Structures are given as C-alpha cells and as structure tokens.
Amino acid sequence: MGRKTTGRSSRRTSASTSPPTETGPSSRRGRAGARHQGAETTRDLPTEEVRTSTGTARLVPDPDGSTGVTLLVNGVPSSHLDLADPGLLTFEYMQQMAAVLAALPSGPLRVVHLGAAGCAFARYVEHERPDSRQVAVDLDADLVTRVREWFALPRAPRLRLRAGDARAELATLPDASADVVVRDVFAGDTTPEHVTTTGFVREVLRVLRPGGVYLANCADRPPLALVRAEVATAVSALVTDGATDRGVWGDVGLIAEPGQLKGRRYGNLVLVAVRSAAATSTGPSDDSAPTGLDLRDATLARALRSLPVPATLLTGEEVRRFAGTAAPLEDPPEPVPSAGPASSSPDDATRPGAPAADGRDAVGQEKD
C-alpha cells in the first residue's frame, strides 16, 4: 500500500479551524487522562528501515529539523505527520478532503478509513471534530502495530485500527453506519482493482448514512484514463433511475489541481460521491447524520480555490464530460460452481467483498 503526493506545502491547511496543538505532556493525554503512546520528537523514532507484513516501512524526518515526519511504505510516501500538530496536513489531496469535511455540519463524525498507513487523516479528524468515532483499516498487520507505537493516535473507541483487506473489512460494517468513507488504498502507486468497481462503490453506499460522503484518492497520469473510469463507475453506482444529472442516490464530483485536468502531470485527484440525504435506508435512522453536502454550492469551490495549492471542483455536466466514453469498472464474473459436491474454502471468508466471519455492531464498535 502506498500513496503518491502532488507536492508538499509548508502552510497549515486552511480547512483547519482549530489552533495548533500545544506541545508537552498535557497535550498527549486523552479526555479520560490516559497518556497516548507515541513519539514526542523525531529523535524518538527509529531511523532504520523496518520490516513489515507487506514489505518495509521507513520514517524520514523533515529536513528543517521540525517535528514533521514522512512515512514511506515500500519506498512510497504514504503519510506525513507533524508530531506536535495533528491539524497540519501537507499532502495536497488530504487538504482537499479536509475542505470537503469542513463543508459538513459541525460535530463529531463516524469515519471509515480504508488504507490507514500513518493515520494522518484520522488524527486530523479527531483534532478538528473531537469525540468522532473512526475505524482505520490497513492490509499490513505489522504496520498497524507500529503506527500505534510511533504516533500519538486517538485510542479506542475514538479510533480503532484493523488489519485486513479494505473491501472485506468494509463488508463487515452495518448498513447506514458511517458519515464518511475514505478510500486511500494503494499497491505501489496503483489502486487495487477490487476497490474501484461499481460493486465496491455500492458497498460504500450501503455503509454510508443518508447524506454521507465517499472520498477516494485516485492517482493517475495523463490521459487520466483510470480516473475517468472511476468517475464513470461512481456515476453508474449512484444514478440508478436513468437520470442524466442527479440520481436518486446522490451526486458525484471531482477535485484536482487545474494542471492535472489539462493532462500535464501525474498526481492525485479526489473523487467525491455524496449519498442523497433523502435516500431510504435499511439501517437505523439517526438525527445526528449529516444533512447532505451540496457539491454545487459555491462555498466548497471557493474553499478549494483558497488552498495552498488551488484546486478545481468539477460537478454535474462537467463530471460527465470529464468521464466521456469511459466505461464503469465492474467486478469479474463469479466462477461457475462445479457439478461436484459442495465444499467450503478457507479463502471464501476473506476474499474481497465477502463477509468476514466476525461481525461488528457499528463504526467504532466491535462485538466482544
């Protein structure tokens, strides 16, 4: 799993409304007074490469001698954290995602992070929206353990870390249990196919509450064929009634630096899908769920243009023109059962998209 960034900014993200965290022991204690684990300075972190379940991890301190550090997973920059300031996001795509979250109603959120790495974005959510309940999933079990040791992350139930396949873990979550689902899953610099399909997006919609938001980090290079296909996939999953603009299940937008949309370079684009607040749900109703994000509202577009690296938001017909003739991505056909006696395979319970053997009650909660 790895992520490429479009660049780093020394400015604090303008989406952050909370002051920087004060350094010192008092700032590293939770609301119950239990001290968080994690390094206080970069000198407390390992300097050598560390073996993990899927390869290697390495921590690279910022060259300016500050409290910033970049986590490399298998050689790919995957997270940047400031040990003293969880409200600082330096990856451009995370700043763009933060601007989207800032457009949601105030208060705690229930967030699912698919692709945890160093949990920089989960840490930011806790800083900006205290008492949120979050689940972060990463395929690398060793990395999940290491980041708890290295960084001062929120403790359960505010942040639960799970080791496992992103789609398989998503399948264990109840209907309408999350306000936000973030997909930041990579193998090298490529997103695995099984978390890009119409079936996967529909699974995300199942987990989202009405008014919930899906944010996907999409890395691509000119002519952006993969991102165009992902946009077409989201539109296909959301528009279920044959509508040509907004479907009954929600809306789709795309955030990118203008140069990327012109096909100038490789980089990250953020796909945004909003489940309609009026959509019916088989899950429990909850008055604390977001009331819905209007991607056509000029406020979000202005916030994105005001970021350290200005970004553009495509919506409506602009999104459809961008997708063009790209075909939605679909899951491969299910294998035809053999005529022999039925048998079960141990892989069946953990294949992408299959329910896991253990169930969870809700986002941020697990059965004992």
UniProtKB/TrEMBL annotation:
Keyword annotations of the record: Polyamine biosynthesis
Domain Methyltransferase type stretches: 113-215
Pfam families: Methyltransf_11 (PF08241)
Cited CDD domains: AdoMet_MTases (cd02440)
Biased composition (Basic and acidic residues): 37-51, 358-368
Region (Disordered): 1-63, 322-368
Record field: compositional bias (Basic residues): 1-11
Skewed-composition ranges (Low complexity): 12-27, 337-347
PANTHER family: THERMOSPERMINE SYNTHASE ACAULIS5
NCBIfam families: MFS_SpdSyn
Protein name, entry field: Fused MFS/spermidine synthase
Originating organism: Oerskovia rustica
